[in-house]
Design a protein that fits this description.
single chain, alpha+beta, 12-stranded mixed sheet, two-stranded antiparallel sheet, 14 helices
């Protein structure tokens, strides 16, 4: 059978029954669209997770002090001083894979003001390496130096949100801000970081945007803290590229337990483990959604088979006439398979459009990230076409096996 004639006859037959053809297409459209939307959202979530984890530092270990009520804290202080620079120095001395560190102490602030505005953000003293280890880029100025930290210089770096609050006109660099009773000169402003969500696997993110940073020694020498407060509120350790993150995290956990006399007054965060946990959760989501989308495609295939079987009964006399004028069983089989395949291909194309629209709608209303995946589109379309072929074989065989004489005598 000539290929051009086959395509023409196939399209003409489907066009004669537009509504029936469209209803048959719906199962394939929904199935392909669901697969594409699910895979696009999954790809977007994975890329967003990678960007998010970069702000935490994939090769970092983060230790944060825990908050307690005054009675519990008083009891803990009998056995543990909380996080200290001694913990950091011990980790640097005993863990060979640790290459750098940064420490942080939160200021008990009651006012952050400038000559142009005020802010309700937070203030912290940090090591100069904090910005590099936290992957915090600058849009203006630069971070403070080791010498400024050593001399307890009155300088500050502002997060992007705080800079807008304190200096609406955008003139933060070189001006002064007052934290409690201390004036600090702004030497840098952080860039607006990527922030897909406010937390990642239960860890809060994005606080840097509304925060003021000063040298750690400035915070310790110029600002007072409560008598029960720990020397540090958090610190992070950077590991070598070839380090075993899990093993180093376990070693750090044992070290801190020993130094804190078994008091659980800190939280150890392992960004690499959080990323692995997120990937596992995403994988489960993908499997579940793939099963749902697969069922939809299967139902669409059954719909194609049902319609094609009904078409065989409807066109029995036509099949007998074609056989009488010389058409072979192979010709009849190819014709019906071509029609089911054409339905599947049309459903796949429309399903791609539906999947793209569905992805955008889900992203718009839910705030989820979407990333286009060409393999997702090709895979879903290929599965749809194969289902059309597979479920079209049986009706085609039924049509080819009809006796020409009996078919011609059918009313």
């Amino acid at each position: 059978m000539n290929g051009t004639i086959l395509i023409r006859d196939t399209l003409a037959e489907l066009a004669q029954h537009k509504l029936r053809t469209f209803l048959t297409l719906l199962g394939m459209i929904f199935g392909v669209g669901a697969v594409i939307a699910m895979l696009n959202i999954g790809e977007g979530a994975e890329r967003e997770a990678l960007k998010t984890i970069e702000t935490m530092g994939l090769r970092n270990l983060i230790v944060e002090g825990r908050n307690f009520d005054e009675t519990t804290l008083l009891e803990h202080r009998k056995h543990s001083l909380g996080l200290t620079l001694g913990d950091v120095q011990a980790a640097m001395a005993t863990l060979p894979d640790v290459t750098a560190f940064s420490a942080e102490r939160t200021i008990e602030r009651y006012a952050i003001i400038s000559h142009f505005g005020k802010s309700d953000g937070e203030a912290s003293g940090v090591s100069p390496s904090h910005f590099e280890l936290s992957s915090l880029p600058f849009t203006q100025g630069k971070p403070f130096t080791e010498q400024q930290d050593r001399l307890a210089a009155p300088v500050a770096v502002l997060g992007s949100a705080m800079a807008r609050q304190l200096f609406p006109a955008g003139n933060a660099l070189g001006n002064y801000v007052k934290v409690n009773h201390v004036w600090l000169q702004v030497i840098g402003v952080l860039d607006e970081p990527f922030q897909g969500s406010q937390d990642f696997q239960g860890v809060e993110l994005g606080g840097e945007q509304n925060q003021l940073f000063m040298p750690l020694n400035t915070a310790q020498s110029r600002f007072s803290s409560g008598h029960l407060a720990a020397e540090l509120d958090a610190f992070r350790l950077q590991l070598a590229d070839d380090a075993d993150t899990a093993a180093t995290a376990r070693a750090l956990q044992h070290l801190l337990q020993y130094r804190h006399n078994g008091i659980d007054d800190y939280t150890l965060i392992v960004p690499a483990a959080l990323l692995a946990q997120q990937k596992q959760t995403q994988q489960i989501f993908n499997i579940v959604m793939s099963c749902v989308a697969g069922i939809s495609l299967l139902v669409g295939g059954i719909g194609i088979m049902n319609i094609m079987l009904a078409t065989v009964l409807e066109r029995t006399k036509e099949i007998g006439l074609l056989r009488a004028i010389g058409a072979t069983r192979k010709d009849i089989k190819v014709q019906f398979i071509a029609e089911s395949f054409a339905i599947a291909v049309a459903g796949g194309v429309l399903g791609i459009v539906f999947g793209i629209v569905l992805s955008e709608l889900i992203a718009f209303y839910s705030g989820w990230a979407v990333s286009w995946s060409l393999p997702a589109i090709l895979i879903s379309f290929s599965i749809c076409a194969l289902i059309g072929l597979g479920f079209g074989v049986y009706p085609a065989m039924r049509a080819a096996e009809l006796d020409p004489i009996t078919a011609l005598q059918t009313d």
